[in-house]
């Protein structure tokens, strides 16, 4: 197995990406657990069953946020491009000279 150096930029970038992916998976797990609990609680308290849209509002809006989180983790270059961050850093460094 290859030894990795904490000063290696590619290693640090990969480590950061893994941390972001792990954060998304934890977010998704909490989303599922909380919303299953809320839906079961709502249906048993109100007696309306699973057919009422009021049962799902939290899951719907939180789901929109979860999709946004997933896009930021798995498609980070979708809007700003692959090298946007590096170009912006260079631009700001040149501006401050």
Describe this structure as you would to a colleague.
- With 97 residues, the chain is mostly helical.
- The chain has three helices and no strands.
- The protein has helices spanning 9-46, 57-74, 84-95.
- The N and C termini lie far apart (43 Å).
- 0% of the residues are buried.
Shape: elongated
Number of strands: 0
Q: Which residue ranges are poorly predicted, with pLDDT under 50 across at least 5 consecutive positions?
A: none
Helix/strand structural class: mainly alpha
| Count of alpha/pi helices | 3
Main sheet specs: none
Give the ordered list of helices and strands.
Answer: HHH
Gyration radius, to the nearest Å?
A: 21 Å
Helix content: over 70%
Fraction in beta strands: under 5%
Terminal Cα separation, in Å? 43 Å
Overall pLDDT confidence: 86
Helices and strands in order:
Blueprint: H1 9-46, H2 57-74, H3 84-95
Short structural description:
The protein has 97 residues and is mainly α. It has three helices and no strands. The protein has helices spanning 9-46, 57-74, 84-95.
List keywords for this structure.
97 residues; mainly alpha; 0% strand; elongated
């Amino acid at each position: 197995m290859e030894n990795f150096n904490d000063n290696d930029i590619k290693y640090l970038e990969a480590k950061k990406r893994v941390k972001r992916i792990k954060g998304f998976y934890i977010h998704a797990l909490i989303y599922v657990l909380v919303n299953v609990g809320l839906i079961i609680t709502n249906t048993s308290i109100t007696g309306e069953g699973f057919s009422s849209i009021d049962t799902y509002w939290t899951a719907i809006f939180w789901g929109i946020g979860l999709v946004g989180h997933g896009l930021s983790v798995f498609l980070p270059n979708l809007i700003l491009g692959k090298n946007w961050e590096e170009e912006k850093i260079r631009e700001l460094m040149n501006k401050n000279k």
